[in-house]
Amino acid sequence: MNRIKRRLATKEWQLHLMIAPGVVFLILFSYLPLYGILIAFKEFLPSKGIWASPWVGLKYFDFMMKLPDVWRVTNNTIYIAGLKILLGFPVPIGIALMLNEVRRSFFKKGVQTIIYLPHFLSWVILAGLILDVFSLTGIVNSFLGWFGIEPFYYLGDNRSFPWIIIATDIWKNFGWGTVIYLAALTGIDPALYESSVIDGANRWKQTLHITIPGIVPIIILTAILSLGNVLNAGFEQIFNLYNPLVMDRGDILDTYVYRVAFQETNWSLSTMVGLIKSVVNSVLIIAGYWLAYRITKYRVF
């Protein structure tokens, strides 16, 4: 058996060579930095370095648990990330089902390209666009001004800011989900539709009894795997859009870690907060993959 494996490895050396840069990148930027976790358990002093800094154990864990700001940003993170998942989940399904009914290939591909394009743009670019749209002289306030509504700074309001974050995130990413579901729709046997036509089923009944059941496994799978994003509210998006006026509702774990580390220079506390978040995320991801395998038999390896 070992001889067979060695032969296969020899024959497939080109594939191993192709994957080597990705493996090296993963080791350099994902595994080697794990050494920095020690900062969470030390009174980190840059002049002494990680190893020579004094060990304080769980001091910063106790300190973190007593900080009201940590619980506030945790609630904000779960609230924003949870609504992104909950409200953003059905959008690509609905769009994919509608595009599946389009018979003009040119129009279908054009719509796919348009809705998919924002996924490739960074939040730095989109944030500038969103700031202009929702500014006091932007399109939104100009449109509402036609109805006699006074200009309002929506990105500076604690009530409207989370909803703008959620809506713009859905707008940016639903095109990617649509492509996934459209790919799943191509796997449905056309013979099922032909049989339903003979039985007198219209397009609505075909969608209800053939199309939707045909993509249910993918829907369940994506829903389960999204559990790993419960604490990922979108650092780049919020960091480029939030301001001091919306800290109460817009500050999340990632922006809090950034601020504590680089503005307050408390690297030990920021590392501890990031470590706890990573541990919880890891548990959720493992649980999600376990559920995915139990329900849909999906496996990564």
UniProtKB/TrEMBL annotation:
Membrane topology term: Multi-pass membrane protein
Membrane-crossing segments per the record: 20-41, 78-99, 120-149, 161-188, 208-231, 272-292
Please give the Pfam families that the UniProt record associates with this protein. BPD_transp_1
Q: Which GO terms describe its cellular component?
A: plasma membrane
Q: Which UniProt keywords apply?
A: Cell membrane, Membrane, Transmembrane, Transmembrane helix, Transport
Q: Where is the ABC transmembrane type-1 domain?
A: 74-288
The compartments listed are: Cell membrane
The UniProt entry, under PROSITE patterns, shows:
ABC_TM1
Q: Which GO terms describe its biological process?
A: transmembrane transport
What is the superkingdom listed in this entry's lineage? Bacteria
Q: What is its main location?
A: membrane
Similarity-based family: Belongs to the binding-protein-dependent transport system permease family.
Question: PANTHER family under this entry?
Answer: BLL4140 PROTEIN
Q: Provide the protein name.
A: ABC transporter permease subunit
Organism of this sequence: Paenibacillus sacheonensis
